[in-house]
Design a protein that fits this description.
- The protein is α/β, with parallel strands linked by helices and 291 residues long.
- It has a single domain, classed as Spore Coat Polysaccharide Biosynthesis Protein SpsA, Chain A (Alpha-Beta Complex), CATH 3.90.550.
- Strands 1, 2, 3, 4, 5, 6, 7, 8 and 9 form a 9-stranded mixed β-sheet that branches.
- The longest helix has 18 residues.
């Protein structure tokens, strides 16, 4: 596991003392919500409020700002001063998403980890339903949901659904919607955490590692998150780079570990063909194909 700053370690271990010295008594949280933040000041308040307004209350909310340049940190700081469940940190320089996700995991105090992106909106029952599922189904390590794709102005673009037949899609695309997931932290200790060199589609690599260990994942047929696609968002702005990394990961796992089906090979070939097209056409095809 990656060795993070001593200050993180001390803050994490002193966390319960910090809770008891604030304005109201709080029981030990059952879930850690982790949220990386980078230049999302226009939307981060919606993401924060969607977590703070959950019907499930027994959580800690860990936020790490990756050296934002647009006052995102200051927005988070306002909420940190008002709600004692929030623990806010800031990277000393821009470290990118994989490092930031790993730092968030290292700060988490519980075994149940819920991911939240700083421009998405979770439904009010999301944590409740996820925690209930995992606490009742000990044979599953991850639970995830469908999501509704929206634009910068809240306009619905399309509904993205995910198959519960993980083996049929694992070599074609990420089998889950990462920002809808709740998982057991011990699962990440088993799969070596996020690869810090991989900053586009780093979550896909994690789920491929998961698949290799035969851990069970559950996609439930319900929409519990609004997933915002922004003009300058990493996945839309760097679409071709994301696609290249996807192909690279697929070929890596095929070469070393996973035997592909004929449909898997055809799918990867078509992905390579997509690289010849403009990004806006690729994005349009992704919508059609529910990628």
């Amino acid at each position: 596991m990656i060795d993070y700053k001593l200050s993180d370690f001390l803050c994490s271990n002193l966390n319960w003392w910090c809770f008891t010295t604030k304005n109201y008594a709080m029981t030990r949280p059952l879930v850690s919500v982790i949220m990386p933040v980078y230049n999302t000041k226009q939307w981060v308040w919606e993401a924060i409020e969607s977590i703070l307004n959950q019907t499930f209350k027994e959580f800690e909310f860990i936020i790490v700002d990756d050296w934002s340049t647009d006052w995102s940190y200051e927005v988070c700081e306002e909420y940190d001063n008002k709600d004692k469940r929030i623990r806010l940190y800031k990277n000393e320089k821009n470290q990118w998403i994989s490092y930031t996700r790993n730092r968030l995991l290292s700060l988490a105090e519980t075994d149940y980890i819920a991911t939240q992106d700083s421009d998405d909106i979770s439904s009010k029952d999301r944590l409740k339903l996820e925690y209930e599922f995992l606490s009742k189904h000990w044979d599953y390590w991850v639970v995830a949901w469908d999501n509704e794709i929206i634009d910068e102005g809240w306009k619905k673009i399309w509904l993205r659904k995910y198959s519960d037949n993980i083996s049929s899609v694992i070599l074609k695309k990420s089998p889950v919607s990462n920002p809808t997931t709740m998982f057991r932290k011990t699962f990440f200790d088993e799969v070596w955490w996020y690869e810090e060199w991989l900053n586009y589609w780093e979550d896909y690599d994690i789920w491929l590692k998961f698949y290799l260990k035969w851990y069970k994942i559950k996609n439930l047929d319900k929409v519990l998150l609004r997933y915002r696609v922004r003009k300058w968002q990493t996945k839309s702005d760097k679409l071709k780079q994301t696609l290249k990394n996807t192909i690279k990961l697929q070929e890596k796992y095929i070469k070393k570990w996973i035997k592909p089906s004929i449909s898997d090979r055809i799918y990867i070939f078509l992905e390579k063909c997509l690289l010849l097209l403009p990004s806006n056409i690729i994005l349009w095809l992704f919508k059609i194909l529910n990628y």
